[in-house]
Design brief:
single chain, about 400 residues, alpha+beta, elongated
Length: about 400
Amino acid sequence: MSEFLIIRPTLSEPRKYTWFSYDEVSHNILAQGQVDSLADLLTINNDSPQRPVVLLYPTDACKLASITWPTRLKKREVNALLFSLEDDLSDDIENFSVAVLNRQGNKYDVLVYKTEELKSLEEALTLMGFSVDFIVPDVLALPLGTKVSDKYDIVALRLEDNWLFRTDVYQGIVIENDLLEFAKEKFNHEVSVSSLSEVPETYAGVWEENLCDNPLAVLADGAIKSKVNLSNKHQKKSLQLKFLQSWIKVVVLVIAVFVLWNINIDYRTKALVQETNAYKNNQRSLFSEIMPGTGRAKDPVAVFRQYISEKTGLGTDEGYLDLLNMISPKLVAESSIEMVSMKFDRSKKTFILHFLAPEDFDMDRFKGLFSEDFTVDPQTAKPSRDKMLHSVLLRRNK
């Protein structure tokens, strides 16, 4: 959205609220007016309720100052700067807050404002449905003057009954038009004054006149682009951004650790592969010494196992397959039994068979099936599923 609603309140009595809508693309003022109360502002927000609101906070209701402090202050200690301005404040010091606009070393550019006054104004506008995206002191919405040496030329603009002066990046003052002729001491003769409005007779020939087409458009454009923003919405976004930035650092650190971990794993993997290859080469060398007539074997362990298997009387896998081949045809041929499980003890070359059989099962006949090669030793027999669950040990005869 390119349309903004600009509101500049007058906080002294009688109160009034100057408003105008500004199009950022065309740099035109679309509409403008003035009302006597906050409630009257509701009538101007019906057409575009979602447009961002810029609150030009009147500089005559706050104070811009530059303070040199002996030590660097932490965020929770900045209100201590108020003691340097206590004599210039119109009320008790506890009624004011300090916003640090800029810090260079021990020099602080600050805005001092009445805490409740600014807070209640922003909250009231928010409750009325306005989206307060910007709160900028009106003088800091003026363009910055030309820098000469270490100082800036002053930029002046007349707005209704007041003259706004921007004197530095974060400094400025407001002077009533009726008091302007008595304020000559406010202007440093080392810098010039460039007026965007018609120069008053008192300063004719002293100030340089650089008229602008529309003062309100100048203020609107400057406020939108200003680095200073006191709105609560902006503060929340800044905190969220800082929080996000802190998590980005964590993510970057995690990624860095992950990359280093992968590099370490890759290095260790390569080292392990080298060790494995060296081990295999040692195996081949040892195998060649033990069995010189077999030539170079790709997998000496497998070749050696096959050689041992061929030299045993019971074939492969320590005789298990041979024994299984001997008993399985007999078990399959015995239709009266239902096999449940079979376990093999390699060390003893024995099978333990678990099978279901009818109650009149002839165990002696079953033993006879295996008598040539095995000793059959019945272990247990107990009822199960209308049958008898038998446990039988088969041991290979020597």
